[in-house]
Amino acid sequence: MVDERDHDTSSSSLPSLSNHLADTTLGGSADVPVIDLSVSDEGFIVREVVKASEEWGVFQVVNHGIPTELMQQLQVAGKQFFDLPEKEKEAVAKEGGFEGYKRNYLGGIDNWDEHLFHRLSPPSVINYKYWPTNPPQYREVTEEYTKHVKRLTEKIFGWLSEGLGLPRVALSQSIGGDTAEYALRINFYPPSQHSELTIGAAAHSDMGAIALLVPNEVPGLQAFKDEQWFDLNYIDSAVVVILGDQLMRITNGRFKNVFHRAKSDRERVRISWPIFVAPRDDMSVGPLPELTGDDNPPKFETLLYKDYIDKKIKGWALEGLHSLLKPPQN
């Protein structure tokens, strides 16, 4: 799997976009959708997730079926890993690819980047070389959590498919079904005395299809809508669902790919556990024929996923060049 998490997404790599978004105002948090999946009326859930996907591209789900104790164990294991001495963390360091541990403090607006990243599924792509052996429970907890996240992802895809008038398996199959790749990135954001200036993750949309994220109790995730940044309130045991570029392209623009960013806290460590779901590199992805027609022609070209990634990265590079060549404004 190749995606933007294998590349520098600091603000310096997205100059025009970051400058534009930095000039926008901070909105509120009450309107970011929160959906209770324990509601007995499944039709209601379908309508709510579709509405959130059309209007926001991000929402939180509660009563989702992932055991709270398991989520707590996942967070304990992740924090224990980042609490280790640097030498021990380097045992699973990156070696040129995107998997492994990396610690990199970027310049510009003080963009912090410390994370652990590795594949989770399908079994054929897993390389346990990049999974920590310390803490000792890391693998067992992560594998069990992955099982639950995959079930929840399939449910969300099913509801979204139904809301589009498609078979429940349509969106899942559009990114490869059982061959779709799941990858975990644990993001570690240390405290910053200049938290109002420190961006833990610069504004971006995810290149894949969808991400399911669990944060610790320290707020910092923000979503962009209507020229404003909105805080996502921390809700204990909630899962944040973030739609990426491929769902937008598959649905011919009906669902949004939300721009989002993470900010550091002045006094507390912030950690997040997003699991990214994306097609295989050799999977062709584009608008579904069922969602296009004479009155709604395709807005996006069908591309191999790896070609889409290359095209977007090249777009970033050109944007950066244009920003450098642009004359200063007085």
TrEMBL record:
Similarity comment text for this entry: Belongs to the iron/ascorbate-dependent oxidoreductase family.
Gene coding for it: LOC104741603
Transmembrane regions: none
SUPFAM superfamilies in UniProt: Clavaminate synthase-like
Keywords: Iron, Metal-binding, Oxidoreductase
Fe2OG dioxygenase domain residues: 179-279
Organism from which the protein derives: Camelina sativa (False flax)
Pfam family, one: DIOX_N
PANTHER family: 2-OXOGLUTARATE (2OG) AND FE(II)-DEPENDENT OXYGENASE SUPERFAMILY PROTEIN-RELATED
Protein name per the record: Probable flavonol synthase 5
Alphabetical list of PROSITE patterns matching this protein: FE2OG_OXY
